[in-house]
Structures are given as structure tokens and as C-alpha cells.
Design goal:
By secondary structure, the protein is α+β, with helices and mostly antiparallel strands. It has a single domain, classed as Alpha-Beta Plaits, CATH 3.30.70.20. It contains 2 helices and 4 strands. It has a two-stranded antiparallel sheet. Strands 2-3 form a two-stranded antiparallel sheet. The two termini are about 15 Å apart. The structure holds iron/sulfur cluster (2 copies).
């Protein structure tokens, strides 16, 4: 559930070991539910992490330059 009590419409599956920490998805996400983590991945980048309440819009998937770093899951209505 999202903060406003409505069910979330989507979710993201982030593969932090494929992420290069560019931050494009963080900037592009309309509801701002992504951020860069404090920790470093094995490449030495701060990977994106998911905070919850994704709308399933798919924008993060389209802006991410790293194949396999983000998967967007849309929940059935
Ligand atoms: S699918 Fe849309 S709402 Fe969900 S994390 Fe990606 S950009 Fe944000
Ligand atoms: S756009 Fe892709 S590579 Fe860049 S921070 Fe987001 S998940 Fe990582």
C-alpha cells in the first residue's frame, strides 16, 4: 500500500549489482520513490533503491542505460 492508502499500481525489481548509480531513474521517477543508497555495490557505485508506492509508469526502465538493472512490475487491476 502507498502512503495515501490507495493500493500501489506497480513495483520495481532493482538489480543493484547491475546499477551504475547514474541517478537517471531517481531524477525521472514522477512520484520520487527511488533514491541512491548509502552503500556501495561491487562496482563501487551507490545503487538505486526502491522506497515503495510505485505507480508502474515504466519511466525508470526507459531511462536506465544499464540492461537488467530495473524491472518494472505492473499489478493487475
Ligand atoms: S515505474 Fe514509474 S513510479 Fe515506478 S519507480 Fe519507475 S519511474 Fe517511479
Ligand atoms: S538509471 Fe539504472 S544505472 Fe542509473 S541509477 Fe537508475 S538503476 Fe542505476
Amino acid at each position: 500500500m502507498s502512503n495515501n492508502g490507495k493500493p500501489d499500481r506497480g513495483s520495481v525489481d532493482l538489480n543493484s549489482e547491475e546499477c551504475k548509480g547514474c541517478g537517471l531513474c531517481v531524477e525521472a521517477c514522477p512520484p520520487k520513490v527511488l533514491r541512491l543508497a548509502e552503500r556501495l555495490n561491487h562496482y563501487g557505485y551507490h545503487p538505486a533503491e526502491y522506497l515503495g508506492a510505485c505507480t508502474g509508469c515504466g519511466i525508470c526502465f526507459f531511462v536506465c542505460p544499464e540492461p537488467g538493472a530495473i524491472k518494472v512490475l505492473r499489478l493487475a487491476a
